[in-house]
Amino acid sequence: MEEEDADRRPQRSPREGSPERKDAPARKERERDPAADIVKITDVDAAFVLGKGGATKRKIARVSGATLEIVDLKSAGASSGMEGAEIEITGTPAARQRAKDYVGYVLSQRTGPVYIDHTMRRDDLSIVMVPMDCVGYVMGRGGQVLRDMENEWGTLMFFAKKKEDEGKDALADGDKVQEILAIFGTRRSRRGAELKVMSAVEHKMPGHFLDGESLRDPLDQPGDGEDDDFDYDVFPFRGDEFSYALGGRGSTRKKIASAANCILEYVGQVAFLAGNERQRGQCRDYLDWLLKQKEGEFYVDVSGRDDVTTVKVPTKSVGYVTGHKGEGLRAVEASTRTFCFTNGRPPAPDDGADDAMNDVMNDAEKDGGNGDEEEEDNRPGAENDGARKRGRSPEPRMKPRGGSDDHEVVLIFGDDKDDREKARRMITDKVRDHARHGGGGGGGGGGRKR
């Protein structure tokens, strides 16, 4: 009876790999992508390429445009006796080659200095010569400043030595006055990182890159002068404009750069604007208007611009919207990558503006009423043809503050229409909120503060 009961019990299959499982199939070797490039490395090298939390591998992949997979040969079902690891690199041929080059540079840093031909021209490399006295300042403690620049601009950066010096006595380094800083990445990312490094060096050693308001040597990196409109302009600051345009921890500079979708870095007392013609024009205007806010209220004629959305705000709600010292609008800007301020009184009513007062009265947003129905590009300064020097916008007409007796107009500037629309909704919501609470109080105005 017991034997019959035993036969009826469900039989468990032995676990895979247990001694009872004699017919368990051998683990299959990992299949490779036939189009992948394979780089064999040691376990130690694999850990170095991976980096903390995979950060180095992700950086190489981001900058090269390739996909990297690090495979531990001992745990990937490889043939018995295989040691070490391999990097499987997939992507376009150009991306795979870049990734292999970057892996080689990264691994060279583990065992000694990286040697590079600083005279070679490749479309993913910029070279900046950094004074020896500034190398530590640019790198930061443990290389953290350099890593932060890489993260900000999506680049791969490291200090290197000249190829012709490879094998020479290391004591000869004492005679050097500059160190090579290699910056790998796209044209735009390399230009941003280059200007960031120049800003740091000029702060530590004034006059190294600048002679007054001009560069000692024009910027010239691979990708410059390609007969497109990617270029750079300079915008010298005057008096106390620099600190005003910088803001706490560079917040004002970052705001203007984000709104204009333009590279904006301050080297000494000079702003460098880099990008295409539209981006530079927007950035130049935004800087100009920012600085004019120091002088008082002014009116900006936005007709013909396609980088602006206008919102009418009831006069009684302006202080609530802008907040104390402009903190309300600053919060909107930070959330939407825009540049916002209240406009001066226009010479005539602007019927194209979104009317937040009507939104409150109707308790519903108007469809398509963001003032952008008839948009055209009329960038001020387009005729300058890549001019290097600062070109200020035409002097604004100084007007009493406010669009009319019952409302003021908030200007929302930004390169991206969706960002501007998000800012418009946030401002409209603030007006509604103020109306729901009886329309009392307010933030004390301050819409002009940066």
From TrEMBL:
Compositional bias annotation for Basic and acidic residues: 378-432
Domain K Homology: residue ranges: 33-108, 122-202, 305-432
Region feature (Disordered): 1-35, 340-450
Designated name of the protein: K Homology domain-containing protein
Pfam families in the record: KH_1
Keyword Iron (UniProt): no
Keywords in alphabetical order: Repeat, RNA-binding
Keyword Nuclease: no
PROSITE patterns noted in UniProt: KH_TYPE_1 (PS50084)
Secretion signal span: none
